[in-house]
Design a protein that fits this description.
Blueprint lengths: L7 H27 L16 H7 L2 H32 L6 H13 L2 H12 L4 H8 L13 H29 L3 H9 L4 H12 L1 H16 L3 H6 L13 H9 L6 H32 L1
């Protein structure tokens, strides 16, 4: 058999390595370097040390953005961890039309988030369908400020994220449930375990790996939320920018010819560090459980 040249594996790996270097590592290190400067879009800037990071601690807008992102993560993690599991258990059963229901539940995943957010903007507008229906039924005297109140806007955005993500994480759980041991359910049922007991003692341990993965994915996605809040707030971030996420703040600070690229880069580095915390926490929890097992 003819042997390959020594450089053949490197030649095959070169496109992927170059892609990672050019579009992954280089932008990351460049962002870190820019975070120590006062660079502008049309100016290289000069070294300012830790001034940008010091400014973050006293920036009121950063406090609002951090609060929004953390609330988004804390609310989305349990909702997008438990609800897709219940949905997967429902559609796992072999009944007539089950393929139709699976497709229906997955449809929001393939829909454009921008289009869906625009539809939700129309639904939750002060003169939208939901407020119109509530007023017609006499449930409210005046329109509910869904998109102009800080907490209502955040609630609508979270509901949009949960609704759109249910189908995706449902498929992950379906794969995990398909690999679970059905005999354990039968044995637990014979021992007199009820539905809820079997759910806690059999189903959850069987999908624990998928659950940890989903928690990590949801945590990162929630901290990096942008489109939902951007579209629902029409780019304003809510009243006074109080519902603005960290990614929205980075865009606002760094965009335009007069944008502060240095400060936006510092915010990006801080976001990277914050995003790493839940991943490290979940990895540590998973390692502790494996050690006890």
């Amino acid at each position: 058999m003819k042997s390959h040249k020594w450089f053949t594996p490197w030649l095959l790996a070169a496109p992927g390595v170059i892609w990672v270097l050019v579009f992954g590592l280089w932008p990351f290190f460049n962002t870190v370097v820019l975070s120590f400067t006062n660079a502008r879009p049309l100016q290289s800037g000069r070294f300012v040390g830790l001034d940008n990071y010091g400014r973050i601690g006293s920036d009121e807008q950063f406090g609002y953005a951090l609060t929004t992102s953390l609330i988004y993560m804390v609310v989305c993690i349990p909702l997008l961890t438990i609800l897709p599991l219940l949905l997967a258990m429902l559609v796992e059963k072999t009944i007539p039309w089950i393929t139709f229901f699976r497709t229906t539940f997955y449809f929001p995943v393939i829909a454009s988030v921008v289009v869906v957010a625009l539809i939700w903007s129309w639904l939750f507008d002060t003169r939208g369908l939901i407020n119109g229906a509530l007023e017609a039924m006499g449930a409210v005297d005046s329109p509910i400020p869904f998109l102009v109140d800080r907490w209502w806007l955040l609630t609508c955005a979270i509901l949009l994220t949960v609704w759109k993500g249910l189908g995706y994480y449902m498929v992950v759980y379906l794969a995990a449930l398909g690999n679970s041991n059905k005999e354990l359910h039968e044995a637990a049922a014979l021992d007199g375990a009820g539905t809820f007991q079997r759910f806690l003692t059999v189903t959850i341990p069987a999908v624990r790996g998928a659950m940890v993965l989903i928690m990590a994915l949801v945590a990162v996605s929630a901290l990096r939320v942008f489109t939902e809040l951007q579209v629902l707030s029409n780019g304003t971030g809510g009243p006074g920018g109080q519902s603005m996420s960290l990614v929205m703040m980075i865009k606002m600070v760094g965009s335009g010819l007069t944008g502060n690229v240095g400060y936006a880069s510092a915010l990006s580095v801080v976001l990277f560090l914050i995003t790493s915390l839940p991943l490290l926490a979940i990895a540590w929890m998973n390692r502790e459980k494996e050690a006890k097992a």
